Amino acid sequence: MNIETSVLGVLDIKDEQIYHFPKGIPGFEQETEFAIIELEEGPFAYLQSLKTEELAFLLTDPFVFYPGYEFELPEAEAEELEIEQSVVVRAIVTLREKLEESTLNLLAPIVFNPDKRAGKQIVLHHSTYSTRQLLWRNSPKKEDELSC
């Protein structure tokens, strides 16, 4: 299937890239079909709406940036996604003008069941994580930069 995207142009999407979000994503409840488009460079991907070409979220594997990231998936959410074995967790990235200020939403990860091709953004209640965790926690400060 070919889809039009505002960022990457026309793409040929395979069925296994398409995920159904029964309740949409908070703020985008009418958007229920998305494709995961893996980027060749780095641990990033786009979650592209199949309905709205201008709607895409930049995703990453949160464990790459926060190896100790963990949470307990509520049983109701696991049942809704029909998770039996396979699960994939991604976080939405917000890019800033200064890249070192870019953030991850660790408070509301996106959980995928690749077996059923279902997805849902899960809000972690009673969590210490933030919607704006710095992507690069140890970015160099100006005084640490080399001068010529």
TrEMBL record:
Chief location category: cytoplasm
Keywords recorded for this protein, A-Z: Bacterial flagellum biogenesis, Cell projection, Chaperone, Cilium, Cytoplasm, Flagellum, Translation regulation
UniProt cross-references to Gene3D superfamilies, sorted A to Z: BH3618-like (2.30.290.10)
Coiled-coil ranges per UniProt: none
Localization terms from the record: Cytoplasm
Cytoplasm listed as a keyword: yes
Protein name: Flagellar assembly factor FliW
Gene name of this polypeptide: fliW
